[in-house]
C-alpha cells in the first residue's frame, strides 16, 4: 500500500493582497509535497484562505464592499498567486465554503459534548490585527501608558458574553505530549518558546464573539459567532470531509506536517492540539514554523510601502530563481532579508555558473562530439564511481533532510555534488580527449549526463520548470522522472535535443 502524506500551508487571511511572505510558506510546502510525490507517496497538499473574523470584516468595510464580495475577490487573488508560483495544491479551501462551515460546527458540537465548552463572559484585551487574546502581562506598555500587543499591533478592551474552551485542562497533557514527541514541533527555538508559554499556565480560551457578525454561527446560539481561530484551524479536517468518517479523504488524517510561520506557532502548537485532544481526534505528526522575511533590511508593511508582490518580482526574475533564492538563502526556520543584490548573486553564482554551466558544457560536448546521442557506457574509473556514488545517495540524503524540514540543508547536499561534478569535468577535460582517447571522452560525458540526471531529478521539487527543461535536454522522458526511475539508466543511443541555456544571468 502506498504511504499517505498530508501536508498543509496556513490558510491566509483575505484582509489584504498576497505578498512574498505568503508565497514563501506555500513554496516550501510545495517543495515537500513534490518531493514526497516523486518518492512514491500518495500526497494530499492543502492550501486556501481564512475568510471570517473581525479583521476581514473591517478590511471589507474600508474597501466599501460586503465581506462576502471582498472575500471572493481576495481569495481569488491568493489562488491566482498559488497558481503563478506553481504551487501544486490538491485542494484549495475557503472557510466560507458551506462544507467547511458544517465541519467547524460539527467539531464545536463534539468538543461541547465532551464537556470542554461553557458559557461565560470575556473581559480582557484583544488584538484584531493578530486575531489574538492577550493577557495583561504579555502586553508592552509605552512610557505614556499605552498598551500594545507583543507584535506591536494595537489592542482593545473587550467585555462581552463568550463561550470558553477549557484550555486549562490541557496544560499537563500538552507538556506531556511535547515531551513524548520531541519532533512534533520545530525549529528548536519555537519549541522552547511554546513549552515555556504552556508552562506559565494556560487560561481557558474565549472561542466566540458577539460584537460583530462575520463568522460561523455557534451551534444552537445564533447570538455568537465562532472565534476565527476555532473556525480556521478546523480547515485541516474539513478539507478531508470531517465529520464524515467514511469519506475516503479522511484516510489522510493525521496530517504529516502543518507548515506555518513562526507568528502562528501558538495557535497550531497549543490551541489546535488541545481542541483535537478534547474531541478525541488524533494529533498531527509535525508542526514546523518558518522564519520571517524582511525586505532590504525593513519589515514589510503597507505604511512603508515596501510590500513585495510576487508578480513584481516575476517581472524581473524567473520563478525558479525566486523559489531557489527563498529556500537557499537562509537555513529554513531562520529569519532573512530579501534584497535584489542577494537574489542576483545566488542566481548568478549557483544557478547560472555552478549548475547552468555544468549542464551547458556537458550537453554541448555531447552535441558536438557524440552526434547528440547518449554515449555508450564503458569502463568506469574510481573517480567516475566516486561521483556517481555521491549522486546515487542524493534521494536518501534529501529525504532525511526534508523529514526535519531542513530545506536549505537539502539544497546544500545537492550543491556539494554539483561542485564535485565541476571539479570532475575540469580534471577529466573531456574536450581534450576527443583526439587522444574518444572512448574515454564518451565515458566521461556519459558519467556527467548520468550525474546531471540525478541532480535534475532531485531538484525537480525546488525548481520544477527549469528541471523539467533540463531533463528534456538529458533525454529523460516524463515517465522516467520519479526517484525510483534513477535505478534504470537512459539507454545508449537515445537522441538528445539541441542544448539550450537553463538560467539567465542578471545584472545589478
Ligand atoms: O495568520 N515572512 O494568515 P496570514 C515569512 N489566517 N512568512 C510570512 C511573512 C513573512 N514576512 N508574512 C506572511 C494567518 N508569512 C491565519 C492562518 S491557519 C489555520 C490560519 C506567512 O494571512 C507565514 O506562513 O496572516 C505566516 O504564518 C502566514 O503567512 C500568515 O498569513
Tags for this model:
single chain; 508 residues; alpha/beta; Isoleucyl-tRNA Synthetase, Domain 1; six-stranded parallel beta sheet; 17 strands; 47% helix
Describe it for me?
The chain has 508 residues and is α/β, with parallel strands linked by helices. The protein has a domain at 340-487: Isoleucyl-tRNA Synthetase, Domain 1, CATH 1.10.730. It has helices at 20-38, 54-62, 67-84, 98-113, 171-180, 188-199, 228-233, 235-238, 265-279, 310-316, 319-328, 340-369, 382-392, 394-403, 407-428, 430-436, 438-459, 464-473; strands at residues 4-13, 42-50, 91-94, 117-127, 132-134, 140-141, 147-148, 156-165, 185-186, 205-206, 208-209, 217-218, 221-226, 257-261, 287-290, 293-295, 336-338. The strands form 5 sheets. Strands 3-2-1-14-15-9 form a 6-stranded parallel sheet, with helices on both faces. It starts with a strand and ends in a 35-residue tail after the last helix. Bound molecules: ligand ME8.
Please specify the SSE layout and strand pairing:
Elements: E1 4-13, H1 20-38, E2 42-50, H2 54-62, H3 67-84, E3 91-94, H4 98-113, E4 117-127, E5 132-134, E6 140-141, E7 147-148, E8 156-165, H5 171-180, E9 185-186, H6 188-199, E10 205-206, E11 208-209, E12 217-218, E13 221-226, H7 228-233, H8 235-238, E14 257-261, H9 265-279, E15 287-290, E16 293-295, H10 310-316, H11 319-328, E17 336-338, H12 340-369, H13 382-392, H14 394-403, H15 407-428, H16 430-436, H17 438-459, H18 464-473
Parallel strand pairs: 1-2, 1-14, 2-3, 9-15, 14-15, 16-17
Antiparallel strand pairs: 4-5, 4-8, 6-7, 8-10, 11-13, 12-13
Helix pairs in contact: 2-3, 11-12, 12-15, 12-17, 13-15, 13-17, 14-15, 15-17, 16-17, 17-18
Amino acid at each position: 500500500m502506498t504511504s499517505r502524506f498530508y501536508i498543509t500551508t496556513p490558510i491566509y487571511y483575505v484582509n489584504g493582497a498576497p505578498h512574498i511572505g505568503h508565497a514563501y510558506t506555500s513554496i516550501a510546502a510545495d517543495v515537500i509535497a513534490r518531493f514526497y510525490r516523486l518518492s512514491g507517496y500518495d500526497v494530499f497538499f492543502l492550501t486556501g484562505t481564512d475568510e471570517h473574523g473581525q479583521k476581514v470584516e473591517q478590511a471589507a468595510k474600508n474597501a466599501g464592499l460586503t465581506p462576502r464580495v471582498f472575500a471572493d475577490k481576495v481569495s481569488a487573488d491568493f489562488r491566482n498567486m498559488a497558481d503563478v508560483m506553481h504551487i501544486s495544491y490538491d485542494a484549495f479551501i475557503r472557510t466560507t465554503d458551506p462544507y467547511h462551515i458544517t465541519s467547524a460546527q460539527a467539531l464545536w458540537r463534539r468538543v461541547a459534548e465532551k464537556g470542554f465548552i461553557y458559557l461565560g463572559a470575556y473581559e480582557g484585551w484583544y488584538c484584531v490585527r493578530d486575531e489574538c487574546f492577550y493577557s495583561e502581562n504579555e502586553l508592552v506598555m509605552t512610557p505614556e501608558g499605552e498598551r500594545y500587543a507583543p507584535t506591536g499591533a494595537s489592542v482593545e478592551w473587550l467585555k462581552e458574553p463568550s463561550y470558553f474552551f477549557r484550555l486549562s485542562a490541557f496544560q499537563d497533557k500538552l507538556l506531556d505530549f511535547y515531551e513524548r514527541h520531541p519532533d512534533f514541533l520545530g525549529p528548536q527555538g519555537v519549541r522552547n518558546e511554546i513549552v515555556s508559554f504552556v508552562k506559565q499556565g494556560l487560561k481557558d480560551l474565549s472561542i466566540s464573539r458577539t460584537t460583530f457578525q462575520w463568522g460561523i454561527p455557534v451551534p444552537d446560539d445564533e447570538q455568537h459567532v465562532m472565534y476565527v481561530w476555532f473556525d480556521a484551524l478546523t480547515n485541516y479536517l474539513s478539507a478531508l470531509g470531517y465529520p464524515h468518517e467514511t469519506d475516503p479523504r479522511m484516510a489522510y488524517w493525521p496530517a504529516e506536517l502543518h507548515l506555518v510561520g513562526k507568528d502562528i506557532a501558538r495557535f497550531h502548537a497549543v490551541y489546535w492540539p488541545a481542541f483535537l485532544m478534547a474531541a478525541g481526534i488524533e494529533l498531527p505528526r509535525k508542526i514546523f514554523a518558518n522564519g520571517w522575511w524582511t525586505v532590504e533590511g525593513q519589515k514589510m508593511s503597507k505604511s512603508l510601502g515596501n510590500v513585495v508582490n510576487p508578480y513584481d518580482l516575476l517581472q524581473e526574475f524567473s520563478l525558479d530563481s525566486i523559489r531557489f533564492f527563498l529556500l537557499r538563502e537562509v537555513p529554513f526556520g531562520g529569519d532573512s532579508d530579501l534584497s535584489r543584490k542577494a537574489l542576483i548573486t545566488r542566481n548568478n553564482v549557483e544557478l547560472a555558473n555552478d549548475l547552468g554551466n555544468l549542464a551547458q558544457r556537458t550537453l554541448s560536448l555531447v552535441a558536438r562530439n557524440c552526434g547528440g546521442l547518449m554515449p555508450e557506457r564503458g569502463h568506469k574509473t574510481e573517480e567516475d564511481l566516486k561521483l556517481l556514488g555521491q549522486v546515487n545517495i542524493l534521494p536518501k540524503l534529501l529525504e532525511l533532510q526534508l523529514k526535519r524540514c531542513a530545506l536549505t540543508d537539502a539544497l546544500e547536499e545537492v550543491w556539494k555534488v554539483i561542485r564535485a561534478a565541476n571539479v570532475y569535468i575540469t580534471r577529466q577535460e573531456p574536450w581534450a580527449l576527443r583526439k587522444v582517447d574518444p572512448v574515454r571522452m564518451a565515458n566521461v560525458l556519459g558519467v556527467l549526463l548520468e550525474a546531471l540526471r540525478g541532480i535534475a531529478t532531485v531538484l525537480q521539487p525546488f525548481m520544477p520548470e527549469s528541471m523539467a527543461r533540463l531533463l528534456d535536454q538529458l533525454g529523460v522522458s516524463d515517465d522516467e522522472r520519479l526517484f525510483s526511475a534513477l535505478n534504470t539508466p537512459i539507454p545508449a543511443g537515445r537522441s538528445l535535443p539541441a542544448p539550450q541555456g537553463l538560467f539567465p544571468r542578471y545584472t545589478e
